[in-house]
Every structure is written in structure tokens, then in C-alpha cells.
What we know:
Structural class: alpha/beta
Number of helices: 11
Order of helices and strands: EEEHEHEHEHHHHHHEHEH
Number of domains: 1
Amino acid sequence: MPILNNGDCRIYWRGDGDTQLPGLLLGNSLGTDITLWDPMLESLMRHFYVVRFDTRGHGGSDAPPGPYSIDQLADDAQAVIAAARLTHYHYWGISLGGMIGMELAARKPTGLKKLVLSHTAAEFDPGIWDQRIAALKTGGMSAIIDGVIGRFFTPEFVLQNNIRLKRIRNIALSQAPAGYAACCGAIRDMDLYPRLARIQVPTLVVVGESDLSTPEARGQALVDHIKDARMVKVKSAHIAPPEIPTEYLAAVLPFIS
């Protein structure tokens, strides 16, 4: 199991595919782990050496005391880049993974070629996250899971309750409440708008037509602040890979290929 140490935190990561292909670093959403990308992994490996990692506080990574910061989470991503020996790569992040991607790209790291910011935003109302953190402290992940799933997916997909949805639900329930809350604190405290002008790589912003968490207006705000950015819409809510893997891949793959 590939584990790296970034300071006092162990970060779980893995690489899949041919290391001679261009690198693709994937950043997960809040409440998920590297398996979020499984519905598209085989297709992605035809084109890229795919590197995934569990955000601190999630999955196989440690959950040290929080709150965390987006800057800290971007440090973890850079440690993964070094451990995987990525010299030329793209970054594709969903939700929290997109926020990490904004900070990472603003640092102008050597080797980053293109950036995909999916279902994400540069800042949020802090009150939303204070409420979620309070709910986690009193009731754990089970106190928030129905609301999380309801925003992740369209009502039609939730009603189907298929194996992909059940898997995401179980993964979210398995997260350490303190680690999840610490990442909520990172989102609550961030304001990435001052950083966006520093992003100098071609950027694709992906928005979901039914996304209540980061609707089209939030995506357009990113396009307006990032040089050489453009936007594409997909028929999803906040988390696309489990619900529309084929359409989602078709929307992004031409950009990074």
C-alpha cells in the first residue's frame, strides 16, 4: 500500500496504469475516497497514468486533529505528485478536490499542464459549514448522510438506490467524523478568489445542471476569474462519476487529451 508521510500525517495514494503515459492526478470530493473514480478508471488508464489519493481525514489517510486548511490539503497533493514522480500531468478535482486544485495551480507547480475544476467553487457561506460541523459533533456521519446523498445525486438516481449509490453512501458513513469535520473547516475558512488570477494553465470548469451545492453561477464565477478557462455543463447533480460516468468522461476527456 503506497503511503507517504507529509509532516505528521500519512497520506494513502496509488497509481494505476502505464507510468510511461502522461500523468493524471485526481482529487476526491468531501466524504468520498479514491474509489469515487472507479466507474471511469479503466477508460482513463487507456490514456493516462492515473494517480489518486485520499484527502487527509478520509479513507486510508490519517485524520489528525483539525481544522485543516486548503493550503494544507494542497501541500498533501504536492507530496503525492513527488511520491508518484509526476513530471508532466493534468489535475482533475471534484468539489473539495477542485478547491485543492485551485490552490495547487495557483502555486504554478512545475509539470502541471491542464486543470479540471468540477462541481466546485472558490468560497462558501461559513454558516453552512458551521451547521454541518455541529451536526457531526452531535450525531456523527449518520446525522448528515441523507442530506449529503440528496445533494450528491439527482432525485431520480437516489430513487434507483443502485449499487453505485449504496457504495458511495457506505463510504461516506465510514469516514471519521472528526476528519470530515476538519475538511469542512477548510472549506468554511477558504477564499480562493484572490488566488485565481495566478492560475496560468488551460482550465475546464465543469458544472452540473442539477447541482444545488455549486450551481452554474458559481462555475461561471471561476471562468470569469481564471485566464484561459471555459465551462461545460453535464446532466448531474454534485457528484457525476457514479451517476453519469460515460457522459462525464466524454465532457472532460477531449480537453485533457
